[in-house]
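Possible regression after last week's pipeline update?

I re-ran a chain I had predicted before the update to compare outputs. Posting the input and the new output here so someone can diff against the archived version. Not blocking, just want to make sure nothing changed silently.
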Amino acid sequence: MPVHELAQLTWEEVRDLDREHTLVVLPVGAIEAHGPHLPLDTDVVIATAMARAGARKLAARGRVVVILPALAYTAASFGAAFHGTLSISAITVTALMVDVARSLSDQGFPLLALANVHLDPEHLTALNEAVKLARADRLLPIVFPDLTRKPWSTRLGDEFRSGACHAGQFESSIVIAERPDSVRDKIRASLARNPSSLSEAIKAGKRTFEAAGGPRAYFGDPAAATADEGARLIDALGSILEEAVSAEI
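New output (post-update):
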């Protein structure tokens, strides 16, 4: 079955989609500091790759999939002190998600799936709250595989599990695979591994990258990143999205 980019369709083409078998996927990211080597839209690049990989897998199972334009603005307070990071309130993010779900519901779509790798705690709270509110308002279900939770958190490699994974080997590999020209590769190759765990810092009450041990806004080992690993991780993210959606429909 086909995969469509909503923004490239006409309104009549959207009108004529088979609603019963059409799923909608929204890539969700942030404009946020990702070390000295990755672009500010890294989370958007990765979320879009996840959305497309998951959409292809769902299409192979007989579903029509429509991918929405990515959401690039969200809560990103951990990186707010770094130039270029744009952070909005979690309340705004939740309201926007529910409004998108309401608009899709009004048009008869049966499900909205979120492809997301931005792990700022406020952002995750906002998305999980949107899932609850959409259910309470009897809108279409929002499927959100939260990568910080099991079983998804165990499937993305050792660095991801360690929590030292912001702009490190995990994210750098995906961007190298997906958009290599955007990576400042000489800088990436020169960066020392930063083993500080963001997840442990969050549990300890830290609220910024600097306080968590990331003075240059990266954690993990970006110099170890490879395109091959990036391709494997994109496939894994796509499988996570597919499985989360399949469990709902």
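Follow-up from reviewer: compared with the archived run. Residues 3-248 form a domain with the Rossmann fold fold (CATH 3.40.50.10310). Marking as no regression found.
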